[in-house]
Amino acid sequence: MRVSAYPELRLHNVQNQLPAQGQKIARPAQREALATISFCTLMNRNSLIPKTIAALVIFLTLISGGAVMAQSKDKIEARNKAIVQASFAAWTAGTGSPFDLLADDATWTIVGNSVVSKTYPTRDAFMHEVIQPFNARMRIGLKPTIRNIYADGNTVIIFFDASGTARDGKPYVNTYAWFFDMRDGEVVKASAFFDSVEFNEFWQRVFPKTPGNSE
Description:
- There is one protein chain.
- 42% of the residues lie in helices and 28% in strands.
- With 215 residues, the protein is α+β, with helices and mostly antiparallel strands.
- A 6-stranded mixed β-sheet has the order 2-1-6-5-4-3.
- Strand 1 (102-110) and strand 2 form a beta hairpin.
- It is elongated, with a radius of gyration of 28 Å.
- Mean pLDDT is 81; it is low at 1-26.
């Protein structure tokens, strides 16, 4: 049998079953499945293969594509989780912090009713308005203890406690939940939850260390 005896089997007819230029197919597996469906439809039209075989081919194509996607998602989650865990380890050791992961244009939203609750549009804004004044109120800086850490796609969630000593000698202890949206190993968007009552009491009680207020 020559393919020329069946004009409908020519490649351009299979291509005509695919979306027109400019239309999008979200995943390679979908593209492969659609091409397989088109080919099997033409073959079935001429009774060259049973419909059950065509259905099996389509099923296996979709399954293999889904497995590749699952592996890719798992790798992204494992990588992001490892990056964030390493930044917390550096924070504990005093050699770095999770803030080192922030992209320059990262937004940081503090949720709730604390005196610093709002969205900061850049890393510099957040560091200047929150982190630097916070550290200036501390005698012994915060150290984190992670309760749990979760990864879902490009999002990493860190549930942790943190404690330190304020400049007036009193302890500061709070529990946090941070949500990091990551891209290429950097945090591009963050949302933070913590006890606003505890934070506000500390923020208003302790004055930051300045050149004129060094005690």
